[in-house]
Design goal:
- By secondary structure, the protein is an all-alpha fold.
- Helices cover about 65% and strands about 0% of the residues.
- Helix 8 packs parallel to helix 11 and helix 19 packs antiparallel against helix 20.
- The protein is elongated and about 75 Å long.
- InterPro entries: ARM-like, ARM-type_fold, ARM_PUB, Armadillo.
Length: about 450
């Protein structure tokens, strides 16, 4: 354990000007960070009134990579030149990312079809009798899972024909049926994709009818769960219309559009395209105004897209950092928020924004009061922020980090102990060097 009880801590002369957010962060306590956090409200024209569903809580299919190789590669070249940075940070980042996959899975149940079917009237249901559409109870998973594929081909063909009609009601009904047909079976998703459904679903992503848009988005999400359909959806030009649905749709439409983009981002080349088509700002909006499920979807999709540098910069420009820091302090989604912040800390703009938005204070509180996993995540991000920054180390000391770090180095998990010891070692170097450049700036 590293003892820092005698560490000299300057008490005046902020290193920043009085107008800087960092100046305020130097004098407010960690408790103030939490108590002053505003509670976001849904936008008036897009209220998040849809009921919360438990369908997505039994998560099985992970759409998150199990390591942060991109982040490690981004941090390593410049950081390795710093005398204070060692391989423990890189291993910590990778471990943190593996853990993130535990929080970031989803399957097609996220689209909430069963809940919606339980609440709609018979006249709205896609199972209502309709001319030229074979009568089939698509809300029964047991029936769909046991029917031979050849028996379902006429239903698929009829739905695709109706998707091309000029009648909005027929399009709405057909899109809803495709949505449910694509929900449960891999072979059926493959059949639907190969039968030509994708190109006729995409125009419906810009439908002015909310139900039609929602069904089209969710159908494409469910179809994208089949690997062979991902490239077809991309090639058909779905990314930009999906971003449009992410901006304009209902709460369920937005969260399912985010998930569809996440699924398409499994193709590495798509990540830059998705970012360039403007997905980052509406994802941040979903993070702020969405339901709990929507916030989770936004966090997961942001994490995946921010594996590339340009999207990290876009997320910082879109104001993601401030809201992520608020989520860290609020709890609930704090672990996922910390991992996304760890990704954004891979660019200089991200590090600066995290500090300006009070991230250091929030992470200290997470180490002090948070759950065991949150403590690990928090100390891992603090390592990124403080490895090559004397100023950030000084801010960390001023926020009272030493006692909780010492406690973590004694009682935390093996990984948490190692990270806490490494960070305490950096703070000891700061003391032995007399504060370095930061100490000089305090003397002004």
């Amino acid at each position: 354990m590293v003892s820092l009880s005698n560490s000299p801590i300057p008490s005046s002369h902020s290193p920043c000007t009085s107008s800087s957010p960092i100046n305020h962060s130097l004098v407010r306590s960690v408790r103030t960070v939490r108590s002053n956090i505003p509670h976001p409200h849904p936008e008036p024209d897009h209220p998040s009134s849809e009921p919360e569903s438990d369908l997505g809580t039994s998560l099985t299919d992970s759409f998150i990579d199990t390591c942060l190789c991109e982040l490690a590669a981004t941090v390593a070249p410049s950081a390795s030149k710093s005398h204070g940075l060692d391989n423990s940070i890189y291993s910590g980042i990778l471990e943190l990312s593996r853990d993130f996959s535990d929080y970031s899975s989803f399957n097609s149940d996220i689209s909430g079809e069963l809940e919606r079917l339980a609440s709609v009237t018979r006249s709205e249901s896609p199972n209502s009798p309709s001319p030229d559409l074979p009568d089939l109870d698509l809300s029964s998973p047991e029936l769909l899972e046991t029917m031979p594929l050849e028996s379902l081909e006429p239903v698929v063909k009829s739905c695709i024909e109706k998707l091309s009609t000029s009648l909005e009601e027929e399009k709405r009904r057909a899109a809803a049926r495709i949505r449910l047909l694509a929900k449960h079976r891999s072979d059926l998703r493959e059949l639907i994709g190969a039968s030509g459904a994708i190109p006729v679903l995409i125009p419906l992503l810009k439908s002015t009818d909310p139900a039609t848009q929602e069904s089209a988005v969710t159908a494409l999400l469910n179809l994208s769960l089949e690997e062979t359909n991902k490239a077809a959806i991309t090639a058909a030009g779905a990314i930009k219309p999906l971003v449009y649905a992410l901006r304009t749709g209902t709460g369920i439409t937005k969260q399912n559009a985010a998930c569809a983009l996440l699924s398409l981002s499994m193709i590495e080349d798509n990540r830059a395209t998705i970012g360039a088509c403007g997905a980052i700002p509406p994802l941040v909006s979903l993070l702020v105004h969405g339901s709990t499920r929507g916030k989770k979807d936004a966090l997961t999709t942001l994490y995946k897209l921010c594996s590339i540098k340009r999207n990290k910069e876009r997320a910082v420009d879109a104001g993601a950092v401030g809201w992520l820091v608020r989520l860290v302090a609020q709890g609930g989604l704090s672990e996922k928020a910390m991992v996304v912040l760890g990704s954004l800390a891979g660019v200089p703009e991200g590090k600066e924004a995290i500090v300006e938005e009070g991230g250091i204070q929030a992470f200290v509180e997470a180490i002090e009061d948070g759950p065991a996993k949150g403590k690990e995540f928090a100390v891992a991000v603090l390592l990124q922020l403080c490895a090559d920054s004397g100023l950030n180390r000084a801010l960390l000391v001023r926020e009272g980090a030493i006692p909780p770090l010492v406690a973590l180095s004694q009682t935390g998990s093996a990984r948490a102990k190692q990270k806490a010891e490494t960070l305490l070692g950096y703070l000891r170097e700061q003391r032995q060097d007399g504060g370095g450049a930061a100490h000089t700036s305090w003397a002004r």
